[in-house]
Amino acid sequence: MTRDIKRPVPFGRAARAVFDLALEGMVWSRRSLLMVVLVGLPVLVAVAYRVGVAARLTASLTPFALYGDLVVFVYLRNILPLVALFYATALVADEVEGKTLTYLLTRPVPRPAILAGKFAAYAATTLSLALPAVLVTFFVLLTRSTGMSLGAGAPDLFRDLGVLALALLAYGALFTLMGVLLKRPLIPGLLFLYLWELLANLPGYLPRLTLTAYLRSLVRHRPADEGLAEIFGEVLPALLCLEVLAAVVVVCLAAAAWIFSTREYVMDQ
Amino acid sequence: MTRSRLVVLSSMIVVAVGITGALGALYFDPARAAVGPLPAEGLSLPGDTRFVMGLDVHRFVASPFYQRFAKGDGTARPQAFKDLEEKTGLNPEKDVDRIVIGGRGMDKGPDGGVVLVSGRLDRTRISRAIETESKGVTHENHEGTTVYLFHEGSPRGAAAAAFVDDDTLVLGSQPGVEATITNYARGQSPIRANAALITLLEGLKPGSTFWVVGDQSVLSQMPMNIPGPGGQGAVSLPPVKTVVVTGELDPVVAVEVTGEAADPKAAQSLADLVRGFVALASLQSGQRPELKDLASAVSVTTEANRVRVNLRAPYELLDALQPRRPPVSAAAPPTGR
Questions:
Q1: Which of A49, B56, B265, B335 is the most exposed place for a label (fewest CB within 10 A)?
Q2: Contact list, A23 vs chain B (CB under 8 Å)
């Protein structure tokens, strides 16, 4: 059966084809090598704690408290937003910079399908990197004979996995939008992460303007030393957090798809 | 299948295996999961527990509060801790993670409470210390666990202590300790039947240094009248259905008390009453100016039928509120025994 070449490829098939192509480019890249090292750092800390190297340094921390610190301070606040920044801003920007976007745009595929396929590849890659690392960190720390048992910590693990996945989707959607909007989105993205997101530690309604405040409210770990957050830290209702984060994902992706569909890309020669 | 898909699939298999393992641990763990800040072993508290208190010992010991008030001049540890460490090898400042107290209501009298102490406990040394250092200690076997009984046969009932596992010591009245051991050994969580208490626990702010939750049954035992200002007359207290207290000690002493009244009107009356006492303290500022600062550190808000009292007091204020001690003479004779 031959396809009518005058009609565009259906959305699902087009998105899937782009997904395969983008996944191959993302998984086997130098960027992924760097990200593996980044998400593997907490695992190394956990192993060091477990074999006793770091036990003296962290004598006041129980294995579960250390796991909580790693989830909140390392994964949720630093590593995963960075992972999202480096991958999601590159979804379109890399194609523009490499002047390969023309090859995609000249195919009879709907433009939103290109973005959907690329974002799905981003989600698959980042989740494949982050979730196993969190699980390994949890098991390395919580299988220690002292402190909280594995079973007692399990509900927090499930919650953490869900929140971290949501963090990757929310930050990913936002940085995809930035990647579509801006020619060089990396610096604004870093400024967003390390300046704007600090509003989460301020009093009043300002934290509600950040993603961190919603994500932080969803996890149950509350490390003791959070500076200003310790004074003003507010735990937002879980339902509100989920609604806001879901809205961020939908709105940012819809806006990115609309901009990507309507924008005219002129490749520099 | 492409190499990339294989990588993603392998990763998802790792995640699935990990989640299955955690689910298995959750299912087979005798104490199951925790509720709010209540640790897993806390679910073994007796079913008729009416209020629960918790203390995060690490945060407490690390707080300026402990450094200032519990340790005195900041260099000496409390003598009781030194004695305890000598006898049992237990350093409460480092080895104890948390303390949970389950109260069984005032009507239970001396059978009232059960205390769970969790941390890195040297079971052998502590057991030996109980057997050798304490007078009149007997022991019994309950559900395969050795329970040490103190003052067995006394009219007030025996006090008891037992290890429910290597990390958790349970202390309290004999019936309370035995009920906790039974629940722990059988993997039962009768406290979950108290839906009101569980709801309060689930709603607690995680990470508090200390917390208290109590349901209506314990609050119904509270006095309904308190002496009025200046000891004149009595002030009626609106009935409170539930109370939740959470507190932090670093960097300032921050305590939040939330009481749930029967309706918004009762909540407003309760809030007005608290505001009245705060205003009264403020009026005393002529004699003690620091009371004005204390009054301004307290805020009272109402939300539907809830009253929220917030205290945020810096340590300088607490120091100022301390009674002034006369300076100790350098030539004071040493106290001998």
A1: B335
A2: 2, 4-5, 8
